[in-house]
Amino acid sequence: MRIWIEFAKQQPLRYLSHLDLMRLWQRAIRRAGLPVVYSLGFNPHPKMSFASALPVGVISDAEYLDIQFAKDISEQDLITLQNVLPIGLLISGWRIVPESVPALMALVRAVTWVMPLDEPIVTVQATIEQLLATTELLVERKGKKGIKTVNIRPFIYKLQVEEETARLLMLLASGGEGGTKPRELLELLQVHPDSNLRRTETLLEVNAVLQSPMAVLLKEKEVSINAKENHYQL
Amino acid sequence: MKNYQQHFWEDILPRVQKATRYLGNELNAVAKDHTRATMKVALAFPDLYEIGMSHLGLKILYHMINENQQWLAERVFMPGDDLEEILLEEAFPLCSLETVTPLASFDVVGFTLQYELSYATIVHMLTLAGIPINVAKRGETDPLIAGGGPGAFNPEPLVDFFDFFLIGDAEEALPEALMLLEQNADLPRVQKLTLLANVDGVYVPSLYKEKMGDNNEYLGLVPITADVPPTVKRAVVTNLDQAYYPTEFVVPYGGIVHDRLVLELFRGCTRGCRFCQAGIIYRPLRERKLSTLTELARKMVRATGYEEMALSSLSTGDYSDIEQLVRELGTDLAEEGVSLSLPSLRLDSFSSGLAEQVQRVRKSGLTFAPEAGTQRLRDVINKNITEEDLLHAVRDAFAAGWTSVKLYFMLGLPTETDEDILGIASLARKVVSAYKQAGGRGKPRITASASVFVPKAHTPFQWVGQISEEEIVRRQSLLRQAFRNSGVQFQWHGAQTSLLEAAIARGGRELAPVIVRAAELGCKLDGWDEYFSYSLWQQAFDEHGLDIETCAQRQYDEEEFLPWDHLDAGVSKRYLLREYKCALRGDVTEDCRDSCLGCGMALLLKDEAQKGVCTSADMD
User: Which of these, A97, A63, A93, lies nearest to A223 by C-alpha position?
Assistant: First the structure.
């Protein structure tokens, strides 16, 4: 049975890398005694993947695991699994997923981030206005083939300061079709990254509408928006 | 004001790389309330987390001490450069991982002594912890600094900075020592140490002094008071099957060197290889029962979720019921997606049946250790395997689908000639040919690795000096040439690290200030190429009127007192000498499982029922 699990990665585990987190889940699932489907081949590995990689040092309310079990999974199995997870990993939801739906990783289009600001709100707001007024925001990225210049303006869907709480809210493109990470943007904003930077939502896209993996409708291969649940128009 | 914990977690950790090393909250880690503990032990491993966490002994002691409700044990490793810099800059003391408690607040700080190249790191860690390095400078409130592991079998180069050593198996002796300290917590330091010195396996170096003869020759170490024993008997766990073994291993977040479960099948080895210190200091042979092992294995997987389990021992294939064990474990573990590995399989105990069981989940490379290139030299070191054993084993492995084999050899063994060295290359070439004969497709991955022989205390070769640096380099280059166009990947190790190891391995008390000086000059983590500095070590030796190469090459006379003569490992000096003479004649000694050779072990075992294969007292 294939399922998606929604979970939070909290402070005590913020330093875990993508690989560390994958290893931790694999071992937790074995402790819970839940049989995962293994790939065939010389070095079999469990069929499980994350929706998107979370940078080291960052916490999140909205991480997702796409995983194939060799048996039917019940609510009780998820409770067993939660009980063997370390403090700092909290399962907040799960759903059964048809086998033919594409991998979760391939469906992710955007991520929302929230970060408390140390800098004066007015200054940050002014910088945001300047940035959003342009059509081109060039940043340099170091890749395997050297330094590449990328325009990240199209990847910023929403960027604003929430005045009451003095927090920066970001809705940024992410996934295979391009995107940007908070660190890149914070540099342009000249804002110091705070240890409470938090991913709050991971979103899939259907016809320019964004919605959480837990909310979208799934039918055979089709992913569609559930109009009754929270969604964003792009 | 923030306490140590808050400051470390909130202000220091965000500034270091690889923070997962220092979190201390891994699965199965134990954090207790210090105010309620009656015995607080910091277990220190003088290397980075990734190395220290791969070590079985530390895990056994950690969980064993924590089993006691009133006691606590926490871990500490050498910090990486970035953290060390912050600690020095902020004058923040080195702390344990679990509760971020300064080492100076523990009752005992115990260091694992695995290899000589870690000794300068010990001094570094004490300095970072703000604990006086020299035993004489420590006060009543300072922790007792203890050492254990193979290095404790020649602890003399460390005596200036250790209050006591535990020699031998710790499962029974350590709780006994800790209980004694707990009960006598109010006694002055020197009285506590005198009590400890009477526990079997405990050596308190400050209670022994060097005895010198009329011509200023060394006549061994003697007690300074009448209330400590003249020789220290090694601690031996006689019933390993009943001995403590952890199942709830701490599971690290990041990849460590050996990131897997370890199941220790037995302790000791009956083969009698003459270069091997472990083969002597872990005698006698003690096995765990098959039912105990399968039960432990099941619990270990459930408690950790690990994907791999290594069956570990000095020579795993020698376990009496190995086929049955591997069959049962293989079946159980394969169901859970856990693979088995047998890291130390002897050539003559390898079989394709075993191989197939081991490869059920994942197939890793195979490693064999012929050690020497010719039968003559293998006879000298008593490595009782033949060329045919090797070729038979690799043919079986190739036929079963393996394509990768690693071969371990040593250079510079006593009596070695150029013919023996060239024999290494020709043996490895035959392994390549065996691949084709076994019908293997493509090219096999054959690796041959040659380390430099380091003579060790408590072995038949303890009297022998190491070969010179010049000679090491010549022999390595000869072997490199012999491997040209062989299809074998040849790996060798730097000569200088082996020289330093040899200099310390058989050294005496004169080396303790040298090690302190080396640490002051900046030597640390010497097992890592990027840190090792031979010239700094040379400077430290030189300032004390010593020379690394001279120490390494030192040849001891048969009648001479050795720096470790006051430590009774169980095997008599007479037996070691007999073996040394057999070696020089090229005579082999049989496996002592078949008939007791009277090495002296039987005298150390108090309980008749536990003597096992050790039936006769010293035969000379």
Answer: A97
